[in-house]
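Following up on my earlier message about histidyl-adenosine monophosphate. Here are the inputs again, as you asked, copied directly from the submission form:
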Amino acid sequence: MSTFKAPKGTYDLLPPDSAKFLAVREAIAAPLRNSGYGYIETPGFENVELFSRGVGESTDIVTKEMYVFETKGGDRLALRPETTAPVLRAVLEANLHKAGNLPVKVWYSGSQYRYERPQKGRYRHFSQVGAEAIGAEDPALDAELIILADQSYRALGLRNFRILLNSLGDQECRPVYRTALQDFLRGLDLDEETLRRAEINPLRVLDDKRPEVQKQLTGAPLLRDYLCDACKAYHEEVRDLITAAGVVFEDDAKLVRGLDYYTRTTFEFVHDGLGSQSAVGGGGRYDGLSEMIGGPSLPSVGWALGVDRTVLALEAEGIELDIPSATSVFAVPLGEEARRILFAKVTELRKNGVAADFSYGGKGLKAAMKAANRSGARYALVLGERDLADGVVQLKDMESGEQTAIGVNEIVAELESRLG
Ligand code: HAM
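Thanks, got it. Here's what our run produced:
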């Protein structure tokens, strides 16, 4: 062991478990690729202002959780705590929204950084797969995203998750509600900090997890009752469309998200086997974000699913993903000449698309066969002194234990046909 450890709140993805993470990323990405979303990748850090303006000056993410640093050149940057604002920044910068085919639909996969108090399911470095549909106001787009996330989770075999749905209104109706909520909150018995929050960001108080606060919140005015006609109609249609798709959801009038850019549709995917960090994914509409970061009006919607928590959810449900073995053929040379010949064959197999690995380090037969076993390969190729003299190699079926001698020149064709 070296003297260094992974920083607090982080962990390493190591084989063989890392294969699960790749499979989860792939399962989330596949339905997106299949639905017109193109891949986008943005830097791991951005100008700090992008997040303070975009995610919100008063959010926990910006005030407490951002990794902010100054470069040698004097730029103030932040490791990205989320990727919606960066994606919108990139789309605006490249003028993708002017190419004439809105919405711009993109998906991404990558690391996020938040200086949070670490616990199971809550890390300082974590991974999301996300999707953003930029520049269209259409309930079908909101519905599409919710349906696709549901499809990803179902494809992974997850069942014990729920979809919480709410509408946060728009610039018409939310201010009216905000005032009503503030009036209500001012009458409660709350501590200094919470009262301060009620003045800056009253909706966040609804999200307070403490029972003594929650108790006082029964009877709080609900945004649902303040939605303007346009927001109400929009929300109804989103609900109708996902219902028609057979996706089950729960209305959650108190669902507020931890980021300030949301308008109208908001949702969260929660898993019941994860304890307090139960949100496996979340998202919603952010019709005002583009203007908040200096762009034109571009109503948009998106989500991000947490890869780490999705893996934990799989474990909670006892789901073993069917991950095929990475290696199909494992070559075991015994002696110098055999080593040269088999190494060339392994290279040739790989060129032909057969997943092959090799016993390195001059191991003896026993240790090499152990390595072959561990690799999960279906076949082992063993080349010894006597085989060399006969121009053959022993092909061992690792499942049945059956062994046959085949000509060295037949290796590639034989394995291709056996592996289909
Ligand atoms: P978020 O709700 O902050 O939304 O994060 C989405 C998901 O990332 C969470 O549901 C959770 O699974 C995962 N996550 C968040 N923080 C942590 C953590 N500390 N450790 C492990 N996993 C975590 C967003 O980030 C928005 N950008 C989503 C979005 C996209 N909205 C519109 N478009």
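One observation from looking it over: The pocket of histidyl-adenosine monophosphate is lined by residues 82, 84, 114, 116, 122-123, 126, 128, 130, 132, 258-259, 279-284, 286, 302-304, 306, 308-309 (CB under 6 Å). Hope that helps, and feel free to reply on this thread.
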